[in-house]
Amino acid sequence: MFPMLFDPLYMAFWLPGLAIALIAQIWVKTSFSKYSGVENRRRISGAQAARMILDREGLSQVRIEMAHGFLGDHYDPSQKVLRLSEEVYSGMTLASVGVAAHEAGHAVQDAAGYAPMKARAGLVPLVSLGSYLAFPLLMLGMFIKAAGLMQLGVFLFAGVVLFQVVTLPVEFNASSRAMAALSGAGILTDEEELGGARAVLTAAAMTYVAAAISSALQLVYFLLRSGMLGGSRDD
Length: 235
Prior knowledge:
By secondary structure, the protein is mainly alpha-helical. The protein contains seven helices and three strands. It has helices at residues 8-35, 46-56, 86-90, 94-112, 115-144, 147-184, 191-226, and strands spanning 63-67, 74-76, 81-85. Strands 1-3-2 form a three-stranded mixed sheet.
């Protein structure tokens, strides 16, 4: 059913990506767990930190709501709502204020018309289509040896990879804005506290890097197998 699973070449591309992704997941969970046990000295919650940052940037219209799920924190640009998981929303830890500040950074990007964020939003329709159709087309194309189907699948999957690559500057910039805001607004008071928040945000950013690398490796494999890179590979 999944011919690539029996292909040593696929394993050569897939396994390194899987290892990188697993390491990144362990890193972020370990960092978040560590700094979820360290309260900030001002005892400011994640929701309070986000509100302080947003108000400081003139974004009082952006609402903050509690969401559910571990690290399900995100900013919704369509509704101008910042949603924080319960632990981040109520927590007074370095991890909580760091994550909340990062999400507030996305709201600031939105208000500023940050170009990579706009580019990522423009790719959403292609990514939505690719997420549903890329792998079925690739699998079917490989199974029945239909080059056209495979090439269409590669095109759609490439859109997903492009989205992940464009996401990187968005995430790194949001973390940079977060660190500046945590210091500038006096939410975190010294380099030790800032270092804890930075460790959490760096680990979180690495999950996006890992996802992009893993997908890029798979894309190279599909390019090879479709004959779009290095000639046809039907063996």
